[in-house]
Specification:
This protein is α+β, with helices and mostly antiparallel strands. It has 2 domains: 110 residues, Roll (SH3 type barrels); 297 residues, Fumarylacetoacetate hydrolase, domain 2 (Alpha-Beta Complex). The protein is 19% helix and 26% strand. The chain is built from 12 helices and 25 strands. The strands form 7 sheets. Strands 7-6-21-13-14-16-8 form a 7-stranded mixed β-sheet, covered by helices on one side. A 5-stranded antiparallel β-sheet has the order 4-3-2-1-5. A hairpin with a 3-residue loop joins strand 1 and strand 2. The longest helix has 15 residues. It is globular. It binds calcium ion (CA). Calcium ion (CA) binds next to loops. Calcium ion binds next to loops.
């Protein structure tokens, strides 16, 4: 109850330490015992069941279109209403959950509407019509490029446009969903013949995903200066990758089966308004780098200082109660291309984005070994294994390994903002 905003009647922890105080209020979809899937707002260690609040008449101040969208089982309808509606909802949630507001605090439905988050199983926040994956970290692109093309780590286009490919939306799963090791074609040497079997070089990629709120009509690009107004919020994404499959299949059209067997999404969508205190300027391009073309040029605070952490816990660590081992920590502000530039570039040729579309950043890596966002880089193709808390070494993921991604923002004098977790356990391949 020590937030500048005056605190909530829900316990949000000393100094908002949980990162889910009134300054955050992320939205998501949870499955509740006996109620099915509900749109929820996370506050402290509770989830507010929005439909229950609507049905009790406590969202009467909201526009009826907003109220109606909150009774659905996905966020798509609410997301499509646009930034004014998102802000109206956020403001009303702040009011209802503030310590001084008795409406819900003293109402008979209070306990039914405020569910402990451990009793609420996170689902995907929305239906995802399309998923695009970028490659926008210069550290990641340079590291991976230098492993495969030491003479020319970055191809000539890389610093002129945010490189991306159209990914697979049907296999995006919610945090906590086990992920099966894929089978695929791999080659022992660089040029076949291939064999078919379980991928050996299974990896994760720590990424940030932008979920689109309002899209754009076909043929009408979104300008870089307005791009963030279209973004409903950010989530964490684990873009699981089979490196041996990827190496054989990726030329000439890019990633395919190495990436489409599963991608895991965290459940709580953190709004850009909540992240505003952590928006930082896009730095000047390093000397020698080209200036972005005018349609990609922007100024101001367009990057976000979000701490991104990856940990791994093996099966034996989990059964022994050994804490997961931190593998990397990096800030999202290290990106070369911003989300605004990704949105502007994606739509610049006329492509239409829709509510719920997912634009992922690509692996977020920083300049140091400890800030590399996938095992391919972190272990440098397996040549520098890392040691887990149980003493075992990892070059790539083993069956039973749980990958845990967390993200948060914190700085002196600012509210802590948490994203929650994106978890997944690697299951053996189907025999
Ligand atoms: Ca990726």
């Amino acid at each position: 109850m020590s937030e500048a905003s005056g605190g909530s009647w829900i316990d949000t922890g000393a100094d908002g330490e949980l990162g889910f105080g009134l300054d955050n209020l992320p939205m998501g979809v949870v499955a509740l015992e006996g109620r099915g899937e509900r749109i929820g707002v996370r506050v402290g260690s509770c989830v507010m069941d929005c439909r229950a609040v609507v049905e009790a008449g406590l969202f009467a101040r909201l526009d009826s279109r907003i109220r109606d969208s909150l009774t659905r089982t996905t966020l798509n309808g609410f997301m499509a209403l646009g930034q004014d509606a998102w802000r109206e909802m956020r403001g009303e949630c702040r009011r209802l959950l503030s310590a001084a507001t008795p409406d819900l605090r003293d109402h008979a439905i209070r306990n039914a509407a405020m569910i402990p988050q451990w009793g609420a199983s996170l689902r995907l926040p929305c239906e995802i019509p399309d998923y695009t994956d970028f490659y926008a970290s210069v550290h990641h692109a340079t590291n991976v490029g230098s492993m495969f093309r030491p003479d020319q780590p970055l191809l000539p286009n890389w610093k002129h446009l945010p490189i991306g490919y159209h990914g697979r939306a049907s296999s995006i799963v919610a945090t906590g969903t086990p992920v099966r090791r894929p089978k695929g074609q791999t080659v022992a040497q660089d040029a076949g013949p291939p064999t078919f079997g379980p991928a050996k070089l299974m990896d994760y990629e720590m990424e940030v995903g932008a979920l689109m709120g309002t899209g754009n009509p076909l043929g009408e690009p979104i300008s870089v200066s307005r791009a963030l107004d279209h973004v409903f919020g950010l989530v964490l994404l684990n873009d699981w990758s089979a490196r041996d499959v990827q190496k054989w299949e990726y030329q000439p059209l890019g990633p395919f089966l190495a990436k489409n067997f599963a991608s895991s999404l965290s459940g709580w969508v953190v709004s850009l308004d909540a992240l505003a205190p952590y928006a930082v300027p896009v730095p000047a391009r390093p000397a020698g780098d080209p200036e972005p073309l005018p349609y990609l040029r922007h100024e101001g605070d367009r990057l976000f200082d979000v701490q991104l952490e990856v940990s791994i816990a093996s099966t034996s660590m989990r059964s022994a109660g050994t804490p997961a081992t931190r593998i990397s920590l990096v800030s999202f502000k290290e990106m070369y291309w911003s989300i605004a530039q990704m949105v502007a570039h994606h739509t610049s040729g006329g492509c239409n984005l829709r509510a719920g579309d997912l634009l992922a950043s690509g692996t977020v890596s920083g300049p140091t070994p400890e800030s590399r966002g996938c095992l391919l880089e972190r272990t440098w193709r397996g040549t520098q294994p890392i040691t887990l808390g149980d003493g075992t070494e990892r070059k790539f993921l083993q069956d039973g390994d749980e990958v845990i991604m967390r993200a948060w923002c914190e700085a002196p004098g600012k509210p802590r903002i948490a994203f929650g977790e994106c978890r997944g356990i690697v299951m053996p391949a189907i025999v």
